[in-house]
Amino acid sequence: MILDVQNVHKSYGKEKILKNLSFAIEEPKMVALVGPNGSGKTTLLNIITDLVNADSGVIKIMNLSNKKPEIFKETSYMQDNSVLYDYLTGYDHLQFIGDIQGLSKQQIFLAAERIGMEGYLFKKVSKYSLGMKQHLLLTMAILNDPKLLILDEPLNGLDPSSAIRIRNILWELYNEGKTILLSSHNLSEVDRLTSHILFLKEGHLIAEDLSLNQRTLYEITVNDPRAAEKYLENHNVGVKHMGNNQIAVFMHGDTLQNVLQSLLDNKIKVLDLNKKVTGSEDRYQMVFEQKDV
Amino acid sequence: MMNLLKFEIKKIWRQKKIFWLLLILILFMSFQYYQNTLHQDSFIDRLYESTEPLKANVTEIERELDEKRVNNQLNELEKQQSVYIKDMKAALQHWRSAIYSEELHNLPQLEHEFLKSLQNYLNKDGEFEALTGLNLEYVILKNTWMIDHNLSIEDEDYPISPHLFMLETGDLLFGVLGIILLLLIFGNILSIEREQQTWFTLKTQPIKKSSIILSKYFTLISMLFLYVVVVVFIGMLLPIILNDHHLLLNYPQIIFSENKIRIISSLTYFLFKSLLFFGAGIISFSLLLLISMVFKKSFSSLIATFFVLLIGHYLTTITDFSAPMNLFHHYQLGDIIIENRDIWYYPLFAVLWAILIVLITLYIPERQADLLNAQYQKSVFNSGDTNSKRGALINTVIFELRKLFRKGYFLQVISILFLLIVIGYFFLNQEADKIETEYFKQLNDEAVAIQEEMIPMYEKKLFEYEDRYEKTNDKSEREYIKKYIDGTTQVINLYKERVEKIEKGVKEYELGNWEAFHELQLFTIKLVNGDFDESLHYIEHNFDHQFQYEVSVEEKEWSIKNNIQPIFPGEFRPTVHDDWGDNPQGEINRDAWEERNHKVNSSGLYTLYHFYEYYLYLIPLGLFLFLLGGGYAAERGKKNTIHFLQTQPISKTTIFLGKILSSSLIFIVSYIGLMVLLLFLGTITDRFGDWNFPILHYDSLSSTSSVGYTGTITDYENYGFHFTPLGNYLLKCIGLLFMLTILVITLSGFISTFIKNTFAVMVFTVLVLVSGHFISIEYLSKWAFLSPFIYLDLFKVSNGTMATLLDQSLINTTMGIVTLFVSSCLLVYFSCIILKRD
């Protein structure tokens, strides 16, 4: 068991943030924790890493209680940049981790190079931009080659090229067999990284493997949408008129080839065709905004 | 401008600074008031006791006059004195009865009756030792004022009335302490903007730089005004609410200077004080803003401001430049009121100074290069190598030290302390030389005066006596004259002996032989004490301090025995057992005597002694507490850096211990550095000093009465003493100081486990230390030795003063070291428990 969270409760005053929350990660995978602002994502990550005490519940990391500092030999937690000492250099932070975790100078430089922060490693953090600080935080997180990597908004403040680089690094880490638990607001980035989503809604978790529930739809522009809707009723698909001669076809069991053949057989002209896969953003809307997609 | 002002005040409000200010003031004043109420039960007793010397004096005079009356020796004047002394006795009796029955409102009138009789008695050439000079003037002035304004007697030592309590707290809070408090709370108003780069946010708005600075300055003045109002308000309100007292703003305030006395109303005194404080405040804030424009960091700005004020204060003191033109003289509020020198000019000059400094601030160019510099690369520690073999605790300590180094504050603090020490030592050296030169000049003048004036005068007298003796045949007259001849001969011999000892002492001193010089001083002590012949009146024999006499004699004997190089001035060693009378004149006499006999020396060891004697060790303690005292809180504020440490494989206990150890290490190493510097300066410019120089150690009554006591038991109420070699004494002080610093660190660390605000942690640490010290002295009585706070005054602990005053022989250095160590361990233990539960 990599991470086991059982019956966690957390309240701040009268406000209940987490309600009897449980989930487990048994095998290496990349999991995204998604929820609106103030839903308790960071609180949950802080509870997992024992930075904040839960009111009740049990958490185990690699079968060890999360209360034991030893968990951080194989776990890293990338937090927001308020944990950085402004007056220290990036290298000072990494050197301390090296001292504590028994890592060499070469390992520090390799990690920094992997993230791409060699150029400003010896400057004080107070001189760093937001993106540079994210790079440092990520370097600190990967430095000890952890089995479990917990990341709080890892792509915040990164420019597109940095974001692509970090995304690739996360993929590399995942392919190396690491488990990654990340929180993010950026749902399109989440879609690019993983299909394993934990929606945090009103203190409860809704776990989804979007790859199992993924639905494909085709937006087809035809010359007669009413007729097309009628002819496709006999197929194992869902059809919805979208307006402007466009219909949305949800593929339940039938194939695209059958659908197009049927339209052609009924003299309906296909003017345009777009394929869409429902992702985390659509599920997010379903879960949090009650929209039927 | 108004919008900016509102914005600034809103920021201060949001930062909860006003809350902290109010909390500190309320806590401080409530505690002070509570203390005063605790002493109210003894007020009548104290008042009654204060009339005891009068009663004793009246009784004695009455007895003497009665004796003469019985022997029919009363002359006309004495007969009249006899009448008035009886009036005095009767008036005193009425007065004391009224005190006993707590008729406080009648007391001024009854005291007046007594003073009237006393005046009549004095007019008849009577002498009344219990009330003379300034004391008499003070009593008469105050009594007249009390009657004119129809006032009752109040407890002025522990006031609980609104007007007197307000003055008592005002004396403390409207002084340097108040300025320090305000600077500490609001001092980062400008530098924090530059530090956190919000300065650019302000500068990218359509606002002039001058408006930003002025709005900040006016905000500071608003806070100063708020502070004054709050102190006045709480000072008045607490007594009114809790004790239903009336506000009497015409209650008299007596102001003593060296040879004059003035009386003003409480309202006038308080207005003077508030106005002067306000003046000092606006100067301080203008200086702070100016310095904040030069330094980028809040810490550096504050330290630099304090440094400038300290140097200014010191230069003002030594140059005696006491005028409103000197901006640093504005901080000597008490002196200005006492001297009554151009008092109304001070607020005016304060405003002019403030305007001038603010104008400079507005036009001074900013150090923008530092603000925008993003290129600077820092060197790495230990060539960038890592070392996990050291263990988590040592690595955490090293990390804490690296953090301190990177912050740069440590070097600033050390540089400032270094400067202070060098400058301070320079003045000490000058002062020591001056005192030594003056001492020898006085000796020389005395020898010349004796040889050229006194001996010839007495020889002439002797010649006249001898001539009369030869010429008279009357046996009784011859006997009478013979007495004079013998006496005068003895005086001449004493003078000759004195001159001889002076000449020998000085000559031998120049040759580096100290014994003759100590013999000279020993001779002087005995002479002043009247050991040779009380009737000679060679020097007025009014020296009446038995304990001091015995100490001074033994000190010289010790110095002779151990061949100690003399330290100047004064032959005497003033002590805590010297009774100068509990009255203003007594205080003045005590101060003058202590100043005359206060030894100053710039040798290495004795400079270190001054470091403890003048409580200078508290300055680094305060600065380091300011630098390192945040403990956990410093990492749990807006910057939550503690989470970085807590997500490493190290326990919270290790992190805490790492902080405690690193801070203790910094404290102790810095103290060692500072003391070595003092020793070094003393040694190269003067000499190392005598390890065996005698340092007085008071022994408590309980220890002098114990079996096997080896010190000297004096004739003064059986109090005892012994001497400790200076070197040993310093080692004791150093041992206590090290343990004390560890206690301060662990205490602030402990407080930081449950308070997240760094400033609040520091304030609470200081409050706990000071109130703990006070409570230990006042209330713990026989258990005081177990309180770690009692050892805060390590100078008095190491020389036995504390043990003697509390009659607790267990209050000593060894017990102090053990108590401080155990207390620190307990604090660490409880902190770890709290952290584990957190």
Automatic annotation (TrEMBL), chain A:
Q: Which GO terms describe its molecular function?
A: ATP binding; ATP hydrolysis activity
Q: Which InterPro entries match?
A: AAA+_ATPase (IPR003593), ABC_transporter-like_ATP-bd (IPR003439), P-loop_NTPase (IPR027417)
Superkingdom field: Bacteria
- Gene3D superfamilies hit by this protein: P-loop containing nucleotide triphosphate hydrolases
SUPFAM superfamilies, alphabetized: P-loop containing nucleoside triphosphate hydrolases
Q: Name one Pfam family in it.
A: ABC_tran
Q: Which PROSITE patterns does the record associate with it?
A: ABC_TRANSPORTER_2
Q: Which UniProt keywords apply?
A: ATP-binding, Nucleotide-binding, Transport
Q: Which family does it belong to?
A: Belongs to the ABC transporter superfamily.
What name does the UniProt record give this protein?
ABC transporter ATP-binding protein
Source organism phylogeny: Bacteria, Bacillati, Bacillota, Bacilli, Bacillales
From TrEMBL, chain B:
Protein's recorded name: ABC transporter permease subunit
Q: Which residues cross the membrane?
A: 172-192, 213-242, 275-295, 302-323, 343-364, 409-428, 614-634, 655-681, 729-751, 758-777, 815-835
Tell me the domain of life.
Answer: Bacteria
What organism does the UniProt record list as the source? Allobacillus salarius
GO cellular component terms listed in the entry, alphabetical order = plasma membrane
Would the keyword Disulfide bond be found if you checked this record's keyword annotation? Answer: no
Question: Which PANTHER family does the record match to this protein?
Answer: INTEGRAL MEMBRANE PROTEIN-RELATED (PTHR37305), MEMBRANE PROTEIN (PTHR37305:SF1)
List, alphabetically, the Pfam families matched. Answer: ABC2_membrane_2
Gene Ontology molecular function terms on file: ABC-type transporter activity
Keyword annotations from UniProtKB, A to Z = Membrane, Transmembrane, Transmembrane helix
Organism ancestry: Bacteria, Bacillati, Bacillota, Bacilli, Bacillales
The reply to whether RNA-binding figures as a keyword in the UniProt entry is no
